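User: Show me a protein chain along with its predicted structure.
Assistant: Here is one chain, sequence first, then structure tokens.
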Amino acid sequence: MAIRRHHTNSRLSKVVRYGGLVYLCGQTAKGSASATGDIAAQTSEVLSRVEALLTEAGSSPSRLLSATVYLRDIRDFSGMNAVWEGWLADNKAEAPVRTTVEAALATEGLRVEVTIVAAEGNAAA
């Protein structure tokens, strides 16, 4: 069984596929060095990026298994959750196992980062 890596550079791969699973690296708002926007805007952007990478890798939000959410400020928890829950509903996705932690993110402007593991395939099993 081959390990397939996508969008790879000298530091990381954005997507790794192996054994019927899709692993996404932490997704942040675009232009993370100068990210702007409140938690709702950044969460929406991050989830849009997650969805695009899952689709490209032959998966979908309906195939989520695990998510780790990193928040710069845990007080953003309810704002992030409002967007997260709407995104799951819009994508007819079941809730994955999820952990949310407060973390010092790479740049000051970043408010949220999300790491995903999903099953390959485009339809709910």
